[in-house]
Fold this protein.
Amino acid sequence: MTNKKKINEQIKSATLFLLVLSIVLMAFTAPASATTVDENAESIDNLATALTYVWLLLAGALVFLMHAGFSLVEIGLTRTKNTANILMKNFMTICLGVLVYWALGWGIMYGADAAGLIGIDQFFLKGADNAMWNSWFFQMVFAATGATIVSGAMAERTNFKAYLVYCAVMVGLIYPVYGHWVWSGADLSLLAGGDSFIVKAIGQGFHDFAGSGVVHSIGGYSALAGVIILGARIGKFKDGKPIAIPGHNLTFAFLGTLLLALGWIGFNSGSTLDGTDPFMNLVIVNTFIAAAASSVTVMLITWSKTGKPDPSLTANGFLAGLVAITASCGSVENWAAFVIGIIAGIVVYVGVMFNENVLKVDDPVGAISVHGYAGSWGLLSVGVFAVGAGNGILADAAYTAGGAGLIYGEVSQFLIQVVGMLLSIVWAFGISFIVFKIIDVVIGLRVSEEDEIMGLDMAEHGTRAYPEFIINK
Amino acid sequence: MTNKKKINEQIKSATLFLLVLSIVLMAFTAPASATTVDENAESIDNLATALTYVWLLLAGALVFLMHAGFSLVEIGLTRTKNTANILMKNFMTICLGVLVYWALGWGIMYGADAAGLIGIDQFFLKGADNAMWNSWFFQMVFAATGATIVSGAMAERTNFKAYLVYCAVMVGLIYPVYGHWVWSGADLSLLAGGDSFIVKAIGQGFHDFAGSGVVHSIGGYSALAGVIILGARIGKFKDGKPIAIPGHNLTFAFLGTLLLALGWIGFNSGSTLDGTDPFMNLVIVNTFIAAAASSVTVMLITWSKTGKPDPSLTANGFLAGLVAITASCGSVENWAAFVIGIIAGIVVYVGVMFNENVLKVDDPVGAISVHGYAGSWGLLSVGVFAVGAGNGILADAAYTAGGAGLIYGEVSQFLIQVVGMLLSIVWAFGISFIVFKIIDVVIGLRVSEEDEIMGLDMAEHGTRAYPEFIINK
Amino acid sequence: MTNKKKINEQIKSATLFLLVLSIVLMAFTAPASATTVDENAESIDNLATALTYVWLLLAGALVFLMHAGFSLVEIGLTRTKNTANILMKNFMTICLGVLVYWALGWGIMYGADAAGLIGIDQFFLKGADNAMWNSWFFQMVFAATGATIVSGAMAERTNFKAYLVYCAVMVGLIYPVYGHWVWSGADLSLLAGGDSFIVKAIGQGFHDFAGSGVVHSIGGYSALAGVIILGARIGKFKDGKPIAIPGHNLTFAFLGTLLLALGWIGFNSGSTLDGTDPFMNLVIVNTFIAAAASSVTVMLITWSKTGKPDPSLTANGFLAGLVAITASCGSVENWAAFVIGIIAGIVVYVGVMFNENVLKVDDPVGAISVHGYAGSWGLLSVGVFAVGAGNGILADAAYTAGGAGLIYGEVSQFLIQVVGMLLSIVWAFGISFIVFKIIDVVIGLRVSEEDEIMGLDMAEHGTRAYPEFIINK
Amino acid sequence: MRKIEAIIRPTKLHEVIEALEAAGCESLTVTEVKGRGRQKGIVQQWRGREYCVDLLPKTKIEIILSEERTEEVIDVIVKTAATDNIGDGKIFVYPVEGVVRIRTGERDGDAL
Amino acid sequence: MRKIEAIIRPTKLHEVIEALEAAGCESLTVTEVKGRGRQKGIVQQWRGREYCVDLLPKTKIEIILSEERTEEVIDVIVKTAATDNIGDGKIFVYPVEGVVRIRTGERDGDAL
Amino acid sequence: MRKIEAIIRPTKLHEVIEALEAAGCESLTVTEVKGRGRQKGIVQQWRGREYCVDLLPKTKIEIILSEERTEEVIDVIVKTAATDNIGDGKIFVYPVEGVVRIRTGERDGDAL
Ligand SMILES: Nc1ncnc2c1ncn2[C@@H]1O[C@H](COP(=O)(O)OP(=O)(O)O)[C@@H](O)[C@H]1O
Ligand SMILES: Nc1ncnc2c1ncn2[C@@H]1O[C@H](COP(=O)(O)OP(=O)(O)O)[C@@H](O)[C@H]1O
Ligand SMILES: Nc1ncnc2c1ncn2[C@@H]1O[C@H](COP(=O)(O)OP(=O)(O)O)[C@@H](O)[C@H]1O
């Protein structure tokens, strides 16, 4: 072996030694830390998921309480003799809501898409994991809402059994189908999927953040179909002129309204569906600004019309503001929320008067106006005031209306909102009209005149809600 | 120095330089990042803890609201003349609950174990840190529940002072002792500790997830002891036949039921005791499926029995479903929750009728049936339907029933559930019977006939709940 | 080229190769992990922020529900004929609260400081980001509370329009100015800023954790000014002697109290303003211990005075305990909370009697005593019982009273609490007196005698709250 | 003078009042009462148990009027309040010895 | 015909009704009233302050019946409604001039 | 014996009772009624729509007393219950044939 060779060998072996050492050292430090870093990243992901779970469970809890709110508003604005019946209807709405949305509704809404129209698996939560259970609970508390809205408009004269059947159809079919079109996330989903022919034609997806359309319009226009078929309560119209039939407990009506407002915190900010989405804050600020503006607007209108600010309409005004901003709360600036609220207030007042004076339909709690008309306005408001994805205050938002609104000079978002709004009316009114007609023929939608005069509490449940109090009929 | 040596030196020094450089570079990157990785890991831990704090505080807040729910249900199902008294009883249950569970109850339940039977330190939260304060609040809102259940069954005839004394004993002793056996986590704890002779004998620990036994059975069977000693309200039985004594406000009864249902979200999903436990979602889905199934079942039973669906029993049905699933919600599949709910509905209906027709005890709100009988069923249901730790959907669950249920062919979990259930009855009924007897002798458990007829509001508090309303006695 | 040179080259190139290799390897492992570590740290920060967002939204939701609580307590303790009016007043308090605190109040409270006295920008939430929207919501639900307190004391005789004007002034000016002095965080802020002359003089900043002063004292002493100008309800005093005017619904009064207690969980523990602050747990434990102690104290006092425990005062007692501990809940040990509660109970009872018997002012719901007097006691209690920053159980607390209390031998914290307390009285009483006087001259603060006798429901709103129930006037 | 006391169905109150008004009989006093006569009580249920409430809600209308108008007013009430079902109620007639209008102190005929 | 008007304790109502039924007197009208007589008011409390409610809740039973049955029915009521404590109430008897059954228009004797 | 039946404004009840007490007339029965006479109904509103409630809440006081005291008591009531506005109410006087004190069974004069 030459010297040179030997030296070369030495150099090689030293190099090799260092190479190995290097790698060993790396392995000892960097790769070790690499593992931990990844573990940390995974822990962070898990924690973010956990935060979303906690968030949606608690937001869902608040939304659940809305059922108490709906019950109380409906009871407060109707007469004592129908109170137990209303309590039962709303309570059964929850029970059937849970069971039917478990068995059917969720699958139709979020199951694998068929032609953009309907979901077709995951019935009975088949194959559910933690994430799906989490979503299901939050979606389920929403689902029963639509039926509750209908219950309110049809109060004091609807057959209990007929209502139960309708309620199941609402939660199992009417609500989830429209929901599928908007919220399923399927590529083909009719109103929001990127591959939907409508969306392609207009060039923008329909945006209904927390459900001015999916929940409220669907409920409101279904209610309209219901009250048209059902007819007005005995004594509501005299020679074609609407007569006031005062409700029995304003305290319940206001407590209910406040519980609904509370629930809306979960309803709207929970609809980020992500516990780490910082835009839930904008959502809530917009929500309350719109509601307050709407309520004050209605108060001022009634004050100017009759000289006295009307309590129950003012409470309706708050709800109308909430309903309207529900679609747009994650897409607009604060001042726009204020304007949306004011217009919602006008819409709900005019709507109530229009229903009674022009349509001559009898909606004891104002549900059609609050949820239907204000819901439609909410859908449109997105197309008018949306800042647009990636713009201004919403630059970093993960989920907002894609296009900017009319006031920013864009048209496509408005167009798709009009389409979505019209579809919500056509679908809800149409299918509910058919369903109610069938129920009317098969079961009978309305109680007998005698039962209505006696009150549904005695007629349907053989009981009275306040047996010790002397009631002045 | 030879050339060779010099070259060797050069190689050595180059190697050394590289070695040092390597290490320096390592020190510059890896160790620096190692520190940060650990810091991150710690931050993540802290954040997970913070999430649990937030979670349990908010879940605890929901459970706190259950006290409003209990008050309203109890008031709604009783007569106006005892309303102020019931409000005071339930309100004082909270106040005494806080103070007694602070001074005594927590220590007995979670203090250092003595012989698996009782805790013996941490009175007045001695030595508490943030984690213990957090746990205490969540446990405290549970603790007062047991007494509230008893209050409901004994309504309209119990001496106020006697009730206060009982309430303190319940929160300070009766509840925490059984709680210690099941939830203390002590190795020797009678029903669930690995070193307990019972658990060793049967080979499986007792599982009561959120307290079908600890909270509800204990309350329910204590109530049974109470009403037996107390006797029925004047006019409840005529010639041995039960007479209906209608409650005064169904709206309150239903609002209360909904507040209880809301609270149960905190009650059951909070009982994961960990904000990062993803199985809280399964828990909640099971909870609502069981409750809805139970409620619908009761409605159908009453409908078929009297031809009219009964409101207050239907509401009781929802609660019975909640009570039953409370033990098993973290251990069973959705379909099993549905079955558990249906059976709970049957149990509560049969229980109410059995109490009135056979036992001839008077329980105005159905507490014994809802909390006692449905609670027992809940404990057993774990032994019947549990998937078992590490199986199926619960493969990753941190906390669930250890053994699988009867339907999966295993017996040991069922056996320990039977033992735990029997012990809850024996302990609650036995100790409460003794305590009530002592109170009866020392203070007098029941008000005078005159006071009962006049109503406890006037007799005990010199006031009326609704002084302006004309009441029809 | 010599052999030596060649070998040197070889060594150099080997060294270079290894060097490069080293760096490349580093680049491949360590630097990569360095990036991820930073990313993780950022994700952790974001997650902590997200947790705070979720926490404050939910805590804010609970505080929002306090408005329902205030309404129900106020309604429960007054007569049926003014119920709709009270509902409207409290409802409009929320609506105006949202709008005025958006337009004005927030800016005055948290805008850029001017001379330590007032904030001067951020009106209409100009320039808001997610964090500011988050804070605004939580602060907004607090802001309207002050006006609600005043509403309670002035119930059953105040002109609706006059109240609305006052409400706007309260939320837009009176509340935020004092709030700025205490909570703005400005260096010069009058009572708490490090550069304030008062703080410098005394050597300790004023500590009012969640607002015994900012919210409750301000509300309470404003109410005192209001009722003095307004005068007592017709029939409240006869020959100078106070006459009992029973409220109409104790169930509402208690339900309201429980909703307030629930809201206080958000109020106090949310006031950590940080979802990761572990001391929220101590805060809540102290809160409930004080409230329970206060309530039991009042019950025992009334029991000993009239032989019968009084329901509505006992409920007031709970609230007084909550109000008092609001300032000190993050600064004291559990036993001190117990003592603070007992004293709060005494304060509220004596205060109610003092107001009626000595001052001869008419406060139907006890608001002045509950919020004003107990609020003052709460501010002082910090100076008496505070553990002091960095001491004992509060060693790691991020935010607590700086100095220890009198019982630990320190004086400065007590002194600044006295100053802050006196300032809250002077400011609230003084400015409200002036504002009410102006309103009285311009609009007229009180309704006509005729309207008062008829009831504000008919007089102001042309409606009745319970039209079907026969009321016994 | 006479007093007519009619116990009628609560649901008939407004019809009767309108008919009386049409007949020129504007002044009256109304009380919520409960009663029983030929009509059996109604079965109610509470917590799945049936019970019979044997006092049914009724409305009492009292009208003090001159002797001459008595028959006419009785006819109006009978006509509007009757449904031909058991439970329609009864009318009782009592003698009245005097009337005073509180506002003015006027007596008897003038006071009616 | 006579009208018997008995003011009794509310708690005695059901006993009295049952006794009347047993005595063959099924038709009656009941009104919730408040009253005072020999019985002093009850002391109540509100927010720690006592006050006296001097009108106590009472129940008024009205029975229109033939002259002959009057004494018998008075006896039944006195027997079942008395507790021998102040506040038991009073019975007043009035003349009745006529009765009409609304359902049929029958008058007087037939209508009772 | 006579029965005085006064229909007054609910807000005047306590004043009248005190005046009657001062005049030595302690026993009486009070009923919440609704009525209409000269006074027009009040306009109320519900959901922005006005409607007229034509039955106003009134309070009925019944006093059974000896013939001699009748005029005096009527005067007391007229004086305290009058506000000189429409809606003050009316007093009706009826013959009474007998009184029984339930507690003791005493009759007529003794029972009053
Ligand atoms: N003899 C009576 N005395 C007092 N009240 C009576 C008498 N007869 C009937 N009433 C009242 O009239 C109401 C209707 O009487 P009812 O006999 O049911 O009507 P009808 O005779 O048309 O069948 C009863 O509920 C009761 O209040
Ligand atoms: N002179 C009267 N006029 C009208 N009502 C009376 C009269 N005396 C008694 N009453 C009614 O009878 C009720 C019982 O009378 P009270 O004197 O207390 O009974 P008692 O005579 O058995 O002691 C009173 O509350 C009142 O409603
Ligand atoms: N003829 C009547 N029959 C029965 N009740 C009457 C009669 N006249 C008046 N009343 C009662 O008296 C109340 C007051 O009568 P109203 O005519 O308004 O008083 P005033 O005569 O002082 O104007 C009425 O609401 C009604 O209850």
